[in-house]
Amino acid sequence: MAHVKHQKWWGWGEEGVFFDYQNKPAFAPFVKNAIGVSLRPRERDTVDFATARVPASTASEDVLTVLRGISGAEHVSVDDELRIVHWAGKSVLELMQTLRNDFARVPDAVVYPGSEDEVTAILTAAVEHDLVVIPFGGGSSISRSLQAEADETRCIVSVDMGRLNKVLEIDETSGLATIQAGVLGPDMEEQLNARGWTLGHFPDSFAHSTLGGWAATRSSGMQSDKYGDIADIVRGLRMVRPSGTVVLRSLPSTSTGPSLREMIIGSEGRLGIITELTVQVHRLPQEHEVIAYMFPTWQQALTAVRQYTEAEIPLTFARVSDAHETAFSLATQKAATSVKGKLAAKGQDALWAVMRKRGWDTDAMCISYVCFEGTPKDVAERKKAVAKIAKAQGAVVLGSGPGALYDQKKFDTPHLRDFLLEQNTVGDVSETAAPWSRLTTVHKAAYDAAQRAYERIGKTGWIMSHMSHSYHSGACLYFTFAYVFDDEKPYEEYEIVKSAIQQSFVDSGATLSHHHGVGVEHQPWMEQDVSPEGVALMKGLFHAADPGTNFNPGKIVS
Amino acid sequence: MAHVKHQKWWGWGEEGVFFDYQNKPAFAPFVKNAIGVSLRPRERDTVDFATARVPASTASEDVLTVLRGISGAEHVSVDDELRIVHWAGKSVLELMQTLRNDFARVPDAVVYPGSEDEVTAILTAAVEHDLVVIPFGGGSSISRSLQAEADETRCIVSVDMGRLNKVLEIDETSGLATIQAGVLGPDMEEQLNARGWTLGHFPDSFAHSTLGGWAATRSSGMQSDKYGDIADIVRGLRMVRPSGTVVLRSLPSTSTGPSLREMIIGSEGRLGIITELTVQVHRLPQEHEVIAYMFPTWQQALTAVRQYTEAEIPLTFARVSDAHETAFSLATQKAATSVKGKLAAKGQDALWAVMRKRGWDTDAMCISYVCFEGTPKDVAERKKAVAKIAKAQGAVVLGSGPGALYDQKKFDTPHLRDFLLEQNTVGDVSETAAPWSRLTTVHKAAYDAAQRAYERIGKTGWIMSHMSHSYHSGACLYFTFAYVFDDEKPYEEYEIVKSAIQQSFVDSGATLSHHHGVGVEHQPWMEQDVSPEGVALMKGLFHAADPGTNFNPGKIVS
Asked: Model pTM greater than 0.95?
């Protein structure tokens, strides 16, 4: 097991990696202004596991003997820290629960299968012994897809897929790779890159999530505009069930009834365990460049991105931060230490001055990043086409400096949540998608809903947003919100704020989630999103596939 | 009902429209050479319905009263000709059965609902009275998705969706249109075109198939490389069930568990009846041009198309005919009558001479058509990029003349089947998809399988193919085969030939169908294609959704 990487038991990422604001001079004043908190320096480098009060494992010797017989004694654990690592994902609610010792049902055992046959044997045993089986990839879920039901009385087994982490084959003619489900993002890219290929799938969780997890939760990455959402990327797969393995051969497209591929993608462990996937891979692009643009207003920035898609300019991503997020982004810039950095900072001040002179309301400005990939000629042409549209919407092209910065720090954001929790502050995210015609409404509704929720809990709260993915008919809006929580009722407050934002999505014609999955967190909105009859159809599928409710019970619909 | 268009009861398309070879001087010699048939001039302009021996309707007065109560007496019919129009699709097997009076179970009544509420009432009645309900769009299925099971003892109701044929709304900002399911292709495009939009979905069946039918059978169109398969195009939908309506709001992408949208697409009536769809629409392109290229060999042509996708050149389609189909295509050219036509024919002869001089084997040549759409600048640039790749694979650019010809006659092919049947000849199609690396194997395997089947039935048969759709990881191969059938055992021979080709697909890693659906025709290969466990999962879904098996029983899996 030693070679399976795990995140901190109490927070995001690996021990020793943190968010730090000491080198970001504008950050503390920004937070003070936004939510009224005077930040203290980080004190928590780690949390001693001795402080954790872990409910005892209820795994019987019989069950452990069976599991050891399948995967070997060295790959079955009842160790308390490993059980806690596997007890939940990394949603803010789960992090709060973990830090407060509010453990409900913790897995009674963790098993690390080393082959598909072992996974089959585990699922067969699960049915035979009426165990609950929860597949575990990188443990990065923020929708509570990994947490067992609090009132679960059966023995719970977390099936950690981390040993199944190899790129098995690359079909270079077809641009397809066959890869085991348990591979973490960086390990997979390393194996692909070594042969000149990339999957192009980079969710915020990239470093701590797995290919199988992405498929099981309908993930999207930062570059999905070009490479596709995971449902586009996955062409074939193997999913183990107690009665056999669903084998979907890799096909560019097929007309074989309801799509089994699309039933399994997003199924969050409720139909079985995905062991292997055949995915589209791409040659590493010759060039990769991120250019920043500043727009006078949110509306103009959205219009520009919609026009990029209308003009069918092939972009790797086109991201727009709203005015709040633009301000936040500027506040998290590191202090300029190099001569070049200082010059850049001076240049930025000058730019702001120019914009004010142009009559811009600098509080309304929205920064946008567009990523271009391809041959030098492709990149040059597309940059020109984008600049033309952006400028027609009043944008100023800031160039590649801020873009490169974005590319460097893109995976850092989740660490911020742990830092804020130490300051008794919730920082969390909620994301959605809607047709272009509804985006402004959805955006405003989420802001209004958050504001009302903050008033209800009597707090000064913050909300900001960016548009992260665009499609022919619409886009994804990604919101980040923050407020100081009350130690006496952290869960109640969280429920009020998060629910208000989620409710505003479905009420304004948007979806409960564009790419974070459902889990337990988003389940209350399933009927409103896909209709009661849609939920009934899905329940029928789950019940038929898992009559004993042994596979990750309670997720998506219950 | 009068305003619902129907196809010939005995053949493809509308009465009075036929395939004619009289103006195609090379056609008869070609057919003689290929399958040994001396063509006779067409004698059959129509078939007298008086020759049909139609099994009597078994619909009880009770059931008819219920249906009349729902949709009005004028929208419920037990008329024999209408029942025969609705008894089957237009597969060659069904056409043969129809012409030979081999009717098994014919719908006992046809109902034309005028609203979604009526559809709900019909389905509720179906469950209450244990009726079999078969939704009917344009009746163009060639996978036997519309034919009732031969041993069905319950009353069968064909639900013709033809009155639900309106474009309800266009969201011009989002490029989305909400359209009723029963609209025929041309009627829909007319409504969309009038406002400057197009769906861009043009299956061979376009004139005689409906939007709802396309969704229910996972259709692709000739321009799907650009506009997407129907599963990409459909963003939202409504599907009626007896217990309520599944309402999926229009979303560019969503992460709400297994995809209900992708479960309903391809469901061929087994989950309920689709009444309304929200689909991606596009502005009519400024330019639309089809250019023809001649390649020395099939392999070089395939490589070129793969390289177009690798280079991510946005094409509307890139089609390649193999050597056999290229020869066929040349044989179906009309005799040149105009001066321009005669010059073109002379030019063609000269071109052939040039190619022979270059050392080409003119029997191996493959014609390819590529369609470009966009601004004049887009079209010019993409043509240049395609020509560069094509030429590197040895191609000669033939220009837009043959391309325009292709665009004009693209919907004519299905009529050929009726003409051939009159000549005791089966002409039919079988199509598949596979990764790029397997295409040559799949192509050869289908040829070999057909040849062996022809030997088995003791006939001289023909097979030809084109690559019709391309994707990042693979493509669709579309085969046409022909042989003279024996009047004593037409079904047995057909079964041998068609099955051999289908079996060769799945044996060589390709799918049983890329876009014709499953129905009954392709059902024998479901377990081999999606694995026994995949079929079991699908059966579980169908059984849960329709415990009484009232909705198009026996289709896809049984």
From this structure: yes
